[in-house]
């Protein structure tokens, strides 16, 4: 990911979270993020069908408790 960003002339992320099933790259100033799902998606299925937003929130809360600039959305 860092090589892709560098090749595109984009800034490196401010923080990276490694959670149980994903890697999340965070940019605080622009409030941007990239979530990379580490699980395989079966052919013919919607890639977001398996996304459990509640579990992701739990994973993020555990990983980013002390991350400066990260605020939980209501």
What profile does the largest beta sheet have? Answer: 3 strands, antiparallel
Morphology call: globular
Rg over C-alpha atoms, rounded to the nearest angstrom: 14 Å
Unreliable stretches (pLDDT < 50, length at least 5) are: none
Q: Which sequence of SSEs, written as H and E, runs from N to C?
A: HEEEH
Keywords summarizing the entry:
about 70 residues; alpha+beta; 2 helices; about 25% strand
Topology:
Blueprint: H1 2-7, E1 15-19, E2 22-27, E3 32-37, H2 53-63
Antiparallel strand pairs: 1-2, 2-3
Write up this protein.
Strand 1 and strand 2 (about 20-25) form a beta hairpin. The chain has one domain. It has about 70 residues and is an alpha+beta fold. It is built from two helices and three strands; from the N terminus they run αβββα. The model has no long low-confidence stretch (mean pLDDT about 75). A three-stranded antiparallel beta sheet has the order 1-2-3, with helices on one face.
